[in-house]
């Protein structure tokens, strides 16, 4: 190995730069300094003699190309001599790669960028909606087949999931509903006392909890608790390729994994909604008794006159629909998980967000429908 070197000398009007040794990345800094020290003068021609160069890599080829290019841009006639075929090919490749690039990306029209983002979001939403509708149809087909052939329903997993999503969720649902009832009663009493309408706090609590807040809060809690669990469980099975093994054995993942979870949630969420309604009313009654000195007997008497039976049934009717949406989205996102733990986490987050969004949208549709029919 010999260090690369370069020197320049004048031969009449010609500047001759003679190079030798190894022109590689190890000696690039030294060679760069030697080339920059060559006096350009006022010659008309430049000849770069590379006959003594023993080794040439891309770094050395770039130094040669850069030097020749700088002289050519000043109007000097340049030429190369003593090149081996391999070195000639190397210089040609470096020359082809010498293309200017924009350091700052070109600016885009703001309006065009907004329209593009809106278009991409619209296409994404339409694609997601198509996937959800397709999965909904697949579930209905499997559910119809199971109803025609009841022996295909897996009762043991069904009971197991009913315990997990129903029985085990009783404490948190009861506590949250009770506290919401307390808050509604306290805030309502504070505001209604100003107008001497204390008694109407019962109407506020009853209508709010029975028609909307009871079932809505329950659905949101279940979406965060059970819907995310469905996604994590099925997503982990996807990571471990257990779902693929089921298909290999001739088992339908929708029938084995999705249907028991969906039926369990559809059967248990109405019971959880009933518990939420009762605990919310209990919390409201206790706070009304404490803050307004409204006795439980008077509270119950006012409750009977303030709301109709439909106010109770509206919340219960919503429960199976919300349960179906939560279970469907939770299982779908689990089946869409990729072969990584990160994907399971992302799909679990998507499951919770999508479930809560759909629950609120469908609840709004229910509210408009019931108002339109006068219920």
Shape: elongated
Mean pLDDT across every amino acid position: 86
Low-pLDDT parts are none
Strand content: 5-15%
Helix/strand order: EEHEHEHHHHHHHHHH
Termini gap: 94 Å
Q: Indicate how many domains the architecture comprises.
A: 3
Question: Topology, pairings included?
Answer:
Blueprint: E1 5-11, E2 14-23, H1 28-36, E3 45-56, H2 58-73, E4 77-81, H3 85-97, H4 110-148, H5 155-165, H6 170-192, H7 201-239, H8 242-248, H9 253-292, H10 296-306, H11 309-335, H12 341-372
Parallel strand pairs: 2-3, 3-4
Antiparallel strand pairs: 1-2
Structure description:
The protein is α/β, with parallel strands linked by helices. The protein folds into three domains: 5-97, 2-Layer Sandwich (Transcription Regulator spoIIAA), CATH 3.30.750; 110-151; 153-372, no CATH class. The chain has helices at 28-36, 58-73, 85-97, 110-148, 155-165, 170-192, 201-239, 242-248, 253-292, 296-306, 309-335, 341-372, and strands spanning 5-11, 14-23, 45-56, 77-81. It has a four-stranded mixed sheet with strand order 1-2-3-4, with helices on one face. β2 (14-23), α1 and β3 form a beta-alpha-beta unit. α6 packs parallel to α9 (253-292) and α7 packs across α10 (296-306). The radius of gyration is 38 Å and the shape is elongated. It starts with a strand and ends with a helix. 30% of the residues are buried. The mean pLDDT is 86.
Structure at a glance:
Helices cover 71% and strands 9% of the residues. It has 375 residues and is of the alpha/beta class. It is elongated and about 120 Å long.
């Amino acid at each position: 190995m010999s260090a690369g070197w370069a020197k320049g000398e004048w031969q009449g009007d010609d500047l001759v730069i003679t190079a030798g040794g190894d022109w590689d990345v190890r000696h690039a800094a030294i060679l760069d300094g030697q080339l920059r020290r060559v006096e350009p003068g006022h010659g008309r021609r430049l000849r770069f003699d590379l006959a003594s160069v023993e080794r040439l890599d891309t770094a050395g080829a770039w130094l040669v190309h850069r030097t020749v290019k700088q002289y050519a841009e000043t109007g000097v006639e340049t030429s190369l001599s003593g090149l081996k075929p391999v070195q000639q090919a190397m210089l040609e490749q470096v020359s082809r790669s010498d293309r200017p690039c924009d350091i700052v990306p070109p600016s885009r029209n703001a309006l065009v960028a907004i329209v593009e983002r809106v278009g991409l979001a619209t296409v994404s939403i339409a694609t997601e909606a198509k996937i959800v509708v397709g999965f909904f149809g697949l579930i209905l087909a499997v559910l119809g087949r199971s109803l025609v052939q009841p022996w295909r329903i897996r009762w043991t997993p069904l009971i197991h999931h009913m315990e997990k999503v129903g029985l085990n969720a009783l404490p948190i649902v009861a506590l949250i509903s009770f506290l919401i009832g307390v808050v509604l009663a306290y805030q309502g009493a504070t505001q209604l006392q100003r107008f001497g309408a204390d008694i109407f706090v019962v109407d506020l609590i009853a209508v709010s909890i029975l028609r909307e807040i009871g079932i809505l809060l329950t659905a949101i809690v279940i979406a965060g608790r059970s819907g995310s669990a469905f996604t994590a469980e099925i997503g982990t099975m996807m990571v471990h390729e257990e779902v693929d093994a089921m298909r290999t054995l001739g088992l339908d993942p929708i029938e084995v994994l999705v249907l028991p979870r969906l039926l369990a949630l559809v059967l248990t969420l109405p019971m959880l909604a009933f518990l939420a309604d009762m605990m919310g009313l209990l919390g409201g009654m206790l706070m009304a008794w404490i803050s307004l000195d409204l006795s439980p007997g008077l509270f119950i008497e006012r409750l009977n006159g303030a709301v109709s039976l439909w106010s109770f049934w509206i919340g219960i009717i919503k429960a199976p629909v919300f349960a179906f949406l939560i279970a469907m989205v939770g299982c779908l996102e689990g089946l869409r998980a990729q072969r990584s733990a990160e994907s399971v986490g992302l799909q679990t987050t998507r499951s919770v967000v999508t479930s809560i969004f759909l629950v609120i949208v469908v609840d709004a549709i229910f509210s408009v429908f019931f108002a339109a029919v006068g219920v």
